[in-house]
Amino acid sequence: MGLLHLPLDVALKIASSLQASDICALGCCSRLCREIFDSDCLWESLARERWPYIYASSSTGSSSSTPAKFPISMGWKSFYILRHIEILGRAQAAVKFIEQCPPSTPIEGGDYLRTILGLRDLKLSFIDVQMVLFKPQLNGLLNLVGLHYCTNLLEIPAYRVMEALQRCKISEKHICVKWWKLGRWFYGFRMRDEQHTRRVSLAELLTAEGEDVLGVLSRGPVHEVLRVQVSVSDPFDSH
């Protein structure tokens, strides 16, 4: 039995589990498909799932809700598409600095953290990050930015981020993090500054093995850490 032969409520329930791009494609198959997959309730469900923070006021009984939050006049599909385009454009602007850097060029820790903070101001959702920053063709540093944003700012559980990395086929991408620490004092003399280098996969950053590396990236150059650099691959490795 095909999807179109199911009761409407069942068909909509199944459709709500699909990607927005798949729903748009299905809606082009026939007139009946268009009627089902252009349904306002379907696109409202997709919008609420992707951007739950937008509708927080509705659950508190606030009277400050605006037509922009509840776009009945324009239709939920139009709202979803317009907001997706807006999110995509603003996110690309926020990560433009990293995107323009050659893949093997190390990024300074301060610049990396500023990129993360720029995304925070956009209030990207977990789905936004997967659609915008977890693409396999992107610079691995952009994938890393998405991972960092999800774990530290959105506080998404590690297992869910891991599932997203694997689903997007970027979990085995590797990044190299270097940091320099102030030399320790030894019998009244300060020893040479220490250099640390770690090459880990994105998946390893979500485990105990990569916890210290993610911690260094989160703190940046502070206290005893003098400098932090991150790159897709170790630019000083001759192999």
Automatic annotation (TrEMBL):
Recorded superkingdom: Eukaryota
Recorded coiled-coil stretches: none
PROSITE patterns found in the cross-reference section: FBOX
A Pfam family assignment: F-box
InterPro entries on file: F-box_dom, FBXO4
Domain (F-box) ranges: 1-46
Any one biological process term the GO annotation gives: SCF-dependent proteasomal ubiquitin-dependent protein catabolic process
SMART domains: FBOX (SM00256)
Single GO cellular component term: SCF ubiquitin ligase complex
Name recorded for this polypeptide: F-box domain-containing protein
Organism for this UniProt entry: Cucurbita argyrosperma subsp. sororia
Lineage: Eukaryota, Viridiplantae, Streptophyta, Embryophyta, Tracheophyta
